[in-house]
Predict the structure.
Amino acid sequence: MAAPYSQDLRDRVIGAVAAGRSARAAALWFGIGVSTAIRWVQRWRAEGHAAARAMGGDHRSRLREHRAAVLSLVAGAPDLTLAEIRDRLQAQHGVRVGLTTVWRFVEANKLTRKKRACAPPSRIAMT
């Protein structure tokens, strides 16, 4: 993910606009996108600053409230796949989540999972 522009650049663009230059002219002068300069100026006029906003989204687990239910499912049947855990959560507790959410919960709680379905023995390796 790209990093936000520096606060120094933001201040210089805002300073140029405050000195009478248009946002478009300031964008061309400092080598940034026109829409970026316009958004900074709009935020400066509305909020009094053009500081970078927080990046990233909500990283809280949707399964945090259902931790006991997931752990009891895994303890009762340790060979469940992620899809089976997801399906049982929906059937028994009404919790609808994606496979990635289940995987992140399992990973965060250091639960070991079955990696793949049973496969026939290898013909190359000694069995």
Summary: The mean pLDDT is 88. The two ends are 46 Å apart (CA to CA). The CA atoms of residues 120 and 127 lie 11 Å apart. The helical segments are 7-18, 23-30, 34-47, 67-76, 82-93, 99-108.
